[in-house]
Amino acid sequence: MIGFKAEVWADNWFALYVNGELVGEDSEPITKMRSFNADTITFRATYPLTIAVVTKDFIENDSGLEYIGSLFGLFKVGPWFTLTQQIGDGGFIAQIRESETGELVAATSSDWRGYVVHKAPLNPDCEKSRRPLDECVSRILDEPEGWRMAGFDDSNWVRATEYDKEEIGARFGYNDIKWGPAAKLIWTNDIDADNTILWRSQASNP
Ligand SMILES: [Ca+2]
Ligand SMILES: [Ca+2]
């Protein structure tokens, strides 16, 4: 077993699995408003690493919207108030180093593959609806069996799309980590509607 250090920033939440085991998750709950913290997670594992991550963009319910019926995202004033109710967006970056040598062994990039299990709204014109659960359409899938394990076939999953800081609006905790040039901000090609994504990558002994 070797010691590793993973650094992760997610808009808004993540859970990290290595070789099928949960090694850590976002230290702030997804329900915390504007959760843009970075996390450092240490763990021990044996090469090759099968890295599996769940990322979630915050949504208030299956409509895919956030700040439903709220004023400036601060407090609820009633189901008729839709000023800041919106479709939020996601984003995610991670890098993993060997603890002892500091050598980078994994980093998010377009080589990562993703599978969207919660997509909403499919009809973005429902964004200011007063009845979003009735009017926004979602597509929700089960997690595929065994997707965190080494032998899982992810060849039909989509390749990640890389984004820059401005496109994702990466801030706060994002700036607390020294990201190596190999680590890219990723999501699928739809940062708005794709809310919960499963990600996979592999790392072998460098
Ligand atoms: Ca978000
Ligand atoms: Ca969203």
Provide the fold topology.
Layout: E1 2-11, E2 13-18, E3 21-25, E4 38-45, E5 49-56, E6 65-66, E7 70-71, E8 75-76, E9 86-87, E10 91-98, E11 104-107, E12 113-119, H1 132-135, E13 139-140, E14 158-159, E15 161-163, H2 165-168, E16 185-187, E17 194-203
Any overview of this molecule?
The protein is built from two helices and 17 strands. It is mainly β and 206 residues long. The mean pLDDT is 93. Strands 2, 3, 5, 12, 13, 14 and 17 form a seven-stranded antiparallel β-sheet that branches. The chain has a four-stranded antiparallel β-sheet with strand order 4-1-10-11, with no helix packed on it. Strands 6-9 form a two-stranded antiparallel sheet. It has a single domain, classed as Jelly Rolls (Sandwich), CATH 2.60.120. The radius of gyration is 18 Å and the shape is globular. It binds calcium ion (CA) (2 copies). The site of one calcium ion (CA) has 7 residues, from loops.
The Cα radius of gyration reads: 18 Å
pLDDT average, as an integer? 93
Q: Which ligands accompany this protein?
A: calcium ion
CATH topology: Jelly Rolls
Helix/strand order, N-terminal first? EEEEEEEEEEEEHEEEHEE
CATH class: Mainly Beta
Multimeric organization:
single chain
Which architecture would the CATH scheme give at its second level? Answer: Sandwich
- Globally, the shape reads globular
- The percentage helix is under 10%
Largest sheet: 7 strands, antiparallel
Q: How many distinct beta strands?
A: 17
Overall structural class, as computed from helix and strand content, comes to mainly beta
